[in-house]
Amino acid sequence: MIALLQRDxxxxxxxxxxxxxxxxxxxxVVVLVPFGVGPQSALLGKIAPGILWLGxxxxxxxxxxxxxxxxxxxxxxxLLATAPLPMEAIVSVKALAHWLTTGxxxxxxxxxxxxxxxxxxxxxxxxxxxxxxGTPALxxxxxxxAALTVSLKRGxxxxxxxxxxxxxxTLIFGxxxxxxxxxxxxxxxxxxxxxxxxxxxIALMPFASAAVLRVNLR
Amino acid sequence: MMINxxxxxxxxxxxxxxxxxxxxxxxxKALVLRGxxxxxxxxxxxxxxxxxxxxxxxxxxxxxxxxYAGHADGIKPTLSVIENLKFWAQVFGNxxxxxxxxxxxxxxxxxxxxxxxxxxxxxxxxxxxxLVTGRPLWILDEPTVSLDAAAVGMFADAVRAHxxxxxxxxIATHIDLGLDGVDQLDVAPxxxxxxxxxxxxxxxx
Lengths: 218, 205
Fold this sequence. Notes:
Number of domains of chain B: 1
Mean pLDDT of chain A: 89
Strand content of chain B: 15-25%
Largest sheet of chain B: 5 strands, parallel
Order of helices and strands of chain B: EEEHEEHHHEHEEH
Order of helices and strands of chain A: HHHHHHHHH
Helix content of chain B: 25-40%
Mean pLDDT of chain B: 85
Structural class of chain B: alpha/beta
Number of helices of chain A: 9
Oligomer: heterodimer
Largest sheet of chain A: none
CATH superfamily of chain B: P-loop containing nucleotide triphosphate hydrolases
CATH architecture of chain B: 3-Layer(aba) Sandwich
Distance between the termini of chain B: 34 Å
Helix content of chain A: over 70%
Strand order of the largest sheet of chain B: 5-6-7-3-8
Low-confidence stretches of chain A: none
Distance between the termini of chain A: 23 Å
Shape of chain A: elongated
Largest interface: A-B, 26 and 29 residues
């Protein structure tokens, strides 16, 4: 399993691996929003948590179809399926590798991007905490979507359509947590909901992903 | 005995391909599957490897003893040859890859990105993966595609050495590998009969 994680990380860093793609996309979205909204820093600060969460979500979506598609095309997935690793472990490791190459850089860059959007000072801590709690769910749900569409050529658009509705609860509670933090309210309820969703999908989704992957390999 | 297949029926996309296939393969033996294109050799091998379910019949074999090699080699073009090979060795819990490098003469290529290899070199790398897995039962689908005569010789030597060590191999191929005492199984007689017209259930499987 560690070997698979190492390989996926290494592949992501190599040419054409897509590392930094999500981060650059996130940066562009965040830079473009102030141009669209205009020079109103008060308004910008108000919508900053929503924009940052939406940006993170779309950046995550961008790299989802790489999770299984390349392994499917070159036959690695067949060979991995017959290797002594359970399919559930394979999909979990893939989701972890996706989070490490997409979610984690977004979390680390979020303070800087918050600055670009004039995020109020009180909002940094809840925003970053919400991203830490929420982004693993994005990767795990995304892995399920990628497993579902792996046998389709050019299945990227369908993948987005399937996965985005599943991201709604994470988006609602993630953005709500950051917003409450800025308003100085207690953010415990959305935080617990967000953490609950993430824990739930980490526990259950790998079984669903493994099942659909087995069907797709037939 | 490595594998015992009895009365196996296989299908692809809901259409039955082969019916009533039975064979046994003992340790130290190889079985070569023959048959025209599209008869279902690949589907048969994938079913035995556990990638898809049989329609009916039994496959008695230890899944943990098999290694499957299909048409695609599962090679990552951006990783070097040695990184590719080491990855598969680690997945199967082995460390030693020197034997595999020697057997297919890929030692001079180890630090090249696998994407720069020729088709034949890639295939050799794919076959070298079999040796690093350390598994006794090889299930090979057209292993000699894009290999030249010398490389086919290397492959035959590797199979021979593997059989001598008590391994077994199930190979679908169209060429003569020059192996002695290899059993052949022509799957053409097992071709499934066309479904009865008007049998609606068949259409919806």
